[in-house]
Write a structure and sequence with these properties.
Blueprint lengths: L3 E2 L15 H13 L2 H4 L3 H15 L14 H12 L3 E5 L5 H11 L4 E6 L10 E7 L8 E6 L4 E6 H4 L16 E8 L6
Antiparallel strand pairs: 1-6, 2-7, 3-4, 3-7, 4-5, 5-6
């Protein structure tokens, strides 16, 4: 089943540079929780917020070049701080734990993030290239809503198809990348 862009829903501010997808997803989620003024920000304001957050993110944890976007550990740390929940990085190929983490987040009306990537080039099949936000409070275990920061759009996707590793080809909800690779999700309700 394919994704569909949600009609009539106001889009969130788009990522303002090729390397701020994770930060744009984080800012949209933080805007939904604590900073609603960001959701109505004009492009210049959104760019300023994203640039500041990106500068902070590049200094969290192991050194990470800003040219590579936002590291998963920086996204988890900033999301934990801005949203007030503890976020953890979970590889998708880790025995279903990422799927379980997203299901728990959706049940708890919590937003989370997916690092996505992969395409037909062999060397890119295992490299995360883009970040999207799963909008937990607007999702169910049947249909999830994803904020895709390169388009600024919200997409509805069947939950069952989200982690389908056999599905190949560009997916609009993933910014034209093919598959999820890492989940960054709150872990309060997840058993270890």
């Amino acid at each position: 089943m394919s994704s569909s862009r949600t009609a009539g829903h106001a889009a969130y501010p788009r990522q303002t540079s090729p390397v701020t997808c994770g930060i744009a997803a984080l800012a949209a989620v933080a805007g939904r929780h604590r900073f609603p003024q960001y959701l109505a920000a004009q492009p210049l304001e959104a760019a300023t917020v994203q640039e500041r957050l990106h500068a902070i993110a590049s200094r969290i944890g192991m050194p990470w070049p800003r040219a590579l976007g936002t590291s998963p550990w920086a996204l988890a740390a900033l999301a934990s701080s801005l949203i007030g929940q503890h976020f953890q990085i979970i590889p998708v190929l880790c025995g279903g734990k990422a799927r379980e983490a997203l299901a728990h987040a959706i049940d708890a009306d919590s937003d989370c993030f997916l690092y996505v990537g992969g395409n037909a080039k062999a060397w890119q099949r295992w490299v995360p290239r883009h970040v999207v936000a799963v909008l937990g409070a607007e999702s169910t275990l049947t249909t999830i809503r994803i904020f895709e920061p390169s388009s600024g759009g919200i997409f509805e996707v069947p939950f069952a198809s989200l982690f389908d590793q056999t599905r190949r080809g560009p997916r609009p909800e993933f910014g034209r990348w093919w598959m999820p690779m890492l989940a960054v999700a709150p872990v309060e309700d997840i058993g270890s």
